[in-house]
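User: Reviewer 2 asked us to show a designed sequence for the structure in our supplementary figure. I'm pasting the structure tokens here. Could you produce the per-position amino acids so we can include them in the response letter?
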């Protein structure tokens, strides 16, 4: 019999030898389609674990806990009734439970076995496995996301229906603050333009007294008037869109995709930066008490990065604004991101080095 002997190679997945095909074209790396598919699933699982390591679930919830703890301290200082204190404390306690579950899931994704989890939590291995099973943690985090979405106002009117008196009061105060920031931004643009109030009035068909009231914050402009004023003064209305919506008490009806949510957060931060008079980054850095560097501030305001809540809160505070007013926009970005990430994979995708 003539011809060359068949050439054998080891399958990259099962390591079993197989006959490599001869001739041109891409060579086979696996002995069968099944092995190729299994190898792909293994690579996908590792990619998911790397993504989760870069974006730990526990960190996001810990940041939320920081805000809730600040709220508890605030209601305590305000001398709120016991009912309010206990309700706020209950929210903190519930968030702590979510954090513990997320922290365990983060550790498991990095390769921690049930034995090390049990030792850290000072419980038995069986208790750890039962309490923080991957499927159970997934349901907990899904329930948390649903609860937060349900509590967030969904109406698109200054006085949204279905809000509690406390939520309505908070929305009203946030609108007042946004209106003041909107006026500050308009005033800064007007002063930077060098135009007189009389000149602005002539170009906008508004009376000088009405222009003056808009710049002082006594009146809040409509969107068309705002666009006219901003463009006349050399600004971009898009920078003030979110401030305008907040000033009028407008709440988006639906969630946004990650790019849109990030764009809205950026517009809000740029609007606050404008309202602060576009201070030098060094001044903002100093006002952040070392939390932010000038490069951080530049990257955030130029849209090069989506900041953590710590960085967002520090920037907003440094611009003399209320972080709580920006919190829903930041949450929208990270909620959309976590949904896309699908952070809790099937149990079989999590390594179990201790065999548990």
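Assistant: Here is a per-position design you can include in the supplement:
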């Amino acid at each position: 019999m003539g011809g060359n002997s068949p050439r054998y190679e080891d399958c990259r997945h099962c390591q079993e030898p197989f006959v490599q095909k001869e001739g041109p074209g891409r060579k086979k790396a696996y002995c069968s389609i099944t092995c190729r598919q299994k190898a792909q699933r293994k690579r996908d699982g590792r990619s998911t674990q790397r993504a989760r390591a870069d974006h730990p679930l526990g960190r996001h919830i810990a940041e939320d806990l920081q805000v809730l703890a600040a709220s508890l301290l605030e209601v305590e200082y305000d001398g709120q009734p016991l009912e309010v204190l206990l309700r706020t404390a209950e929210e903190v306690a519930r968030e702590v439970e979510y954090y513990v579950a997320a922290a365990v899931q983060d550790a498991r994704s990095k390769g921690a076995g049930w034995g090390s989890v049990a030792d850290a939590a000072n419980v038995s291995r069986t208790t750890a496995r039962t309490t923080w099973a991957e499927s159970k943690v997934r349901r907990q985090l899904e329930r948390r996301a649903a609860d937060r979405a349900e509590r967030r106002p969904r109406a698109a009117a200054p006085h949204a229906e279905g809000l509690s008196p406390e939520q309505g009061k908070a929305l009203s105060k946030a609108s007042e603050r946004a209106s003041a920031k909107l006026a500050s931004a308009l005033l800064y643009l007007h002063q930077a333009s060098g135009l007189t109030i009389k000149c602005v009035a002539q170009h906008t068909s508004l009376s000088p007294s009405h222009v003056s009231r808009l710049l002082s914050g006594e009146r809040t402009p409509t969107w068309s008037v705002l666009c006219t004023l901003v463009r006349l003064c050399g600004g971009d209305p898009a920078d003030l869109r979110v401030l305008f919506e907040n000033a009028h008490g407008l709440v988006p009806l639906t969630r946004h995709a990650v790019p849109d949510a990030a764009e809205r957060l950026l517009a809000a931060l740029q609007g606050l930066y404008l309202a602060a008079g576009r201070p030098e980054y060094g001044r903002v850095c100093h006002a952040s008490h070392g939390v932010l560097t000038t490069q951080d501030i530049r990257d955030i305001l130029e849209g090069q990065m989506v900041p953590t809540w710590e960085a967002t809160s520090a920037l907003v505070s440094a611009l003399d604004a209320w972080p709580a007013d920006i919190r829903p926009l930041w949450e929208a970005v990270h909620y959309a991101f976590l949904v896309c990430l699908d952070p809790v994979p099937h149990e079989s995708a999590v390594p179990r080095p201790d065999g548990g």
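For the response letter, you might also mention the following. The chain has a mean pLDDT of 79. Strands lie at 7-10, 17-20.
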